Amino acid sequence: MVIKSAEYLISSPDWEKCPAADKPEYAFIGRSNVGKSSLINMLMNQQKLAKTSGTPGKTQLINHFLINKSWYIVDLPGYGFAKVSQSQRRNWEQMIENYLRKRPNLVNVFVLIDSRHTPQKLDLDFVNQLGKWEIPFQLVFTKADKTTQLETSRNVKAFLNKMRETWQFLPAHHVTSTVKKMGRDNILAFIDEMNAR
Ligand code: GTP
Ligand code: MG
Fold first, then answer.
1. Which domain holds residue 75?
2. Which parts of the sequence belong to the EngB-type G domain (predicted)?
């Protein structure tokens, strides 16, 4: 897919304030600091479309971007940020649950997982929750440049094996690095295919 245009539209505090649900939508979620905003920038071939930061918790709202005037990308705030209060966490959970379950044009959620780590309970809990809600998703293992290929593939396999304990079918997965521009074509090809349906 050729990206002809990518524009920031709006940041919304809840699903009801999001733009009209009249275009296919793809959301990016995952642990705080896992690289959601950076991945969106890589996919769009832009440096500063989505705001990135070395400090976790940068993205706080539901951020919509309009791509090629015909579909939406959504950058979501991350989970698992240690420095938030109980009530902030509950707000996040409510906002995300409502958005994921009520947004009618949501085609797919990309769940980002840091490829440097062995399976984390937080990520497994999150994908299991998506399963219970019957929300389609794919896995994206990020920051592949930060460790060896062997370590990455070990961690990917371990995560899928963990899922296999409870899941009958495993989701598709991607391995990405924004530094090496890795994984871009496959993600965009999938979106292209879904948009054509
Ligand atoms: P929150 O919005 O705070 O939840 O974070 P986020 O998931 O949007 O992460 P963000 O894109 O802001 O990236 C966090 C940090 O990881 C930044 O310092 C990025 O430069 C770095 N980063 C993201 N992706 C990669 C990658 O593929 N490789 C490397 N080496 N660093 C990356
Ligand atoms: Mg972010």
1. 6-195
2. 22-197
